[in-house]
Amino acid sequence: MFVMELMYTAPIEDVEEEMDAHLAWLDGYYASGVFLASGRKVPREGGVILAHGVSRAEIEKIAAEDPFSVAGVCEYRITEFIATKTSAGLAEVRESLAS
Predict the structure, then answer these.
(1) Which residues have CB under 8 Å from 56's CB, separation 6+?
(2) DSSP string, 66-86
(3) Which of 2, 14, 63, 94, by CA, is between 20 and 30 Å from 86?
(4) pLDDT tens for residues 27-78?
(5) pLDDT score of 3
(6) Using CA atoms, how far apart are residues 81 and 75, in angstroms rounded to an integer?
(7) What is the model's pLDDT at position 13?
(8) Does residue 45 sit in helix, strand or coil?
(9) Could you give the strand order of the β-sheet that contains 35-40, starting from the edge strand earlier in sequence?
């Protein structure tokens, strides 16, 4: 599983100009089952996306395709982790540690 942390690198007005395209991009990855949750940080200086089911190389490619990235209004920090405990609603993405 991945935590994709977005950090805005441009004024919020520039971010807003790309918002519709960013939301459409998010919708596509929700539809494919890769994205589990997303939202704005508080204070509004970026956002967070939880993703799963793809490799590190694939998640980096996905981040690079974000209209925010393409427009140069954000940078990503991607953290991979093994979700060994989850809520019941996320049981299907629970992982086991390798022996």
Answers:
(1) 2, 78, 80
(2) SHHHHHTSEEEEEEE----S-
(3) 63
(4) 999 999 999 999 999 999 999 999 999 999 999 999 999 999 999 999 999 9
(5) 98
(6) 20
(7) 97
(8) coil
(9) 35-40, 46-51, 2-8, 74-80
- State how far the Cα of 35 lies from the Cα of 31, in Å rounded to an integer: 8
Taking residue 2's Cβ as centre, other Cβ atoms within 10 Å add up to 24
pLDDT confidence of residue 50: 97
Calculate the alpha carbon distances from 68 to 12, 77, 97 in Å.
11, 14, 34
Q: Which residues pair with 46 in a beta bridge?
A: 7
How many residues appear in the chain? 99
Q: What is the pLDDT of residue 99?
A: 61
Give me the residue label for tokens 């989850």.
86
Question: At 30, which amino acid appears?
Answer: Y
Tokens of 96: 């086991």
